[in-house]
Amino acid sequence: MSDKATLEINGEKYEFPLITGSENEVAIDVKALRGATGGVITIDPGYKNTGSCESAITFLDGEKGILRYRGYSIEELAEKADFLEVAYLLIFGELPNQEELDKFHEDIKSHAIVDDDIKKILDAFPKSAHPMGVLASLTSALTAFNPTSVDVNSDEDMYNAIVRILGKFPVLVAWAMRKKHGLPLDYGDNSLGYVENVLKMMFKNPTSDYEQNPILVNALDKLLILHADHEQNCSTSTVRITGSSHAGLFVSLAAGISALWGPLHGGANQAVLEMLEAIREDGGDTKKYMAKAKDKSDPFRLMGFGHRVYKNFDPRAKIIKVAADEVLGDLGVEDPILDIAKGLEKEALEDQYFVDRKLYPNVDFYSGIIYRAMGIPTEMFTVMFALGRLPGWIAQWREMRLRKEPIGRPRQLYTGETYRPFKSIDKR
Ligand code: SDX
User: Which of 67, 292, 359 to mutate to test the pocket of ligand 1 (most atoms within 8 A of CB)?
Assistant: First the structure.
């Protein structure tokens, strides 16, 4: 294959370099396009064909349904690693040995306290506040209490900011849930593993000890691994572009949390459960909802289906579907919602509209069923997605800063009014 692309505009030919990635993906390097052509730019709403960066963190092949973190397959990581190992792998590029993992965890635990004044901010929210809005606000507020985490000008600064947020974020997640349910805001237990500690902080009843359930620990650990990174998705791109102005890590993450909240993105796991509940209340009439999803005059979409990149099964959805059966079986939970989900999936996979558009179940289709079986409230589902995605966001932000990437500032094609003289009000 040639290492150049040729573009012809008004009879003029321009050559641009082709870049080939480690998985033989090819990109046209258009960095010189505007200068070489006297102002011509590309335009690509939603960036469906446009790469924002080179990255060495996550590879996914949407046609083949492949997902790898730093070269390791999601299937192997979900089966053989734990969440903290995967967080270390995403952020620093290699699986840690035992000594590295222990130090990483100790450093995280040393930052597991959140300034008590954060509770005053939390108190200001109405109980009706959505936990994602609370989490984004508190994550941003952490900057005020950890000012050294803003100007990360050295590896040490960067590492300290990273272990701080990995230590404090699970506390904010637990507080966001407990505040809504009128429960006391407590801290975790540094004698526990990372995921055990999350569960204890979320569910500990003030009047009794919290007994760990290994089924819940394993299920959450696997779910967090499956959500940990996904290359340049909407929220990760938001984290990267926010960080490209050299805004601090915590506020960049708060921007990513806000982007993830949207029902077309991470908010879909909550929307899936609400959709499945509506179908159940409607007597399980999946055909009605399939028709709505295909009706262009109806804004309803089959939540948990379709993906910008996967035009095959989302490998995470396959793993979560199996895990849903296992967890509900292990917990002895009979959930009619799971049967409705499986029925809906079967119908959609056989429906020409969905087949033609290559719409398959994505990561959000089954995850809420497991969260629900674990006793996690529906409004907390996207917060759990954010907890899982935290190491991925951190890894991507770190990569962008270490590579000293330029501030993100897209061009546009102006299609508005051309010059016109001011008109005084009496002439309008
Ligand atoms: C996540 O990017 C990531 O990696 C995200 C994520 C991650 O880990 O970070 O994987 C997490 O966000 C998963 C996606 C969760 N969202 C949902 O489940 C919401 C429902 N899905 C859709 O809204 C949609 O599929 C998107 C947003 C996920 C993708 O949208 P695209 O790529 O912009 O595709 P599109 O909107 O252009 O749709 C193409 C066609 C359209 O029909 P036509 O105009 O061609 O006739 O497919 C249709 C759409 O109407 N379509 C759907 C549909 N999804 C797409 N029709 C019905 N139901 C759906 N769910």
Answer: 359
Task: State the Cα–Cα distance between residues 367 and 40, nearest whole angstrom.
Answer: 44
Residue 274 pLDDT exceeds 80: yes
Retrieve residue 24's tokens.
């033989």
Q: Could you tell me the CA-to-CA distances from 315 to 74, 86, 118, 335 in Å, in that order?
A: 8, 17, 38, 23
What count of residues does the chain have?
428
Q: What is the pLDDT of residue 149?
A: 77
Round the average pLDDT of the chain to a whole number and report it: 96
* b/e burial code for range 36-66 (CB count within 10 A of at least 16 → b): eeeeeeeeeeeeeeeebbebebbbbeeeebb
Q: With a 6 A CB cut-off, is 307 part of the ligand 1 pocket?
A: yes
Question: Judging by DSSP bridges, how do beta strands 26-28 and 12-20 pair with one another?
Answer: antiparallel
Is 44 a known active-site residue? Answer: no
| pLDDT band at residue 1 under the 50/70/90 scheme | confident
For the cut 90, the answer to whether the pLDDT of residue 428 exceeds it is: yes
Composition of the chain by helix, strand, coil, percent to 5? 55, 5, 40
Could you identify the residue written with the tokens 């469906």?
Answer: 48
* Active-site residue, 130 included: no
State if residue 363 touches ligand 1 by the CB under 6 angstroms criterion: yes
Q: pTM to 2 decimals?
A: 0.96
Q: 240: how many CB neighbours lie within 10 A of its CB?
A: 24
pLDDT in tens, 154-165: 899 999 999 999
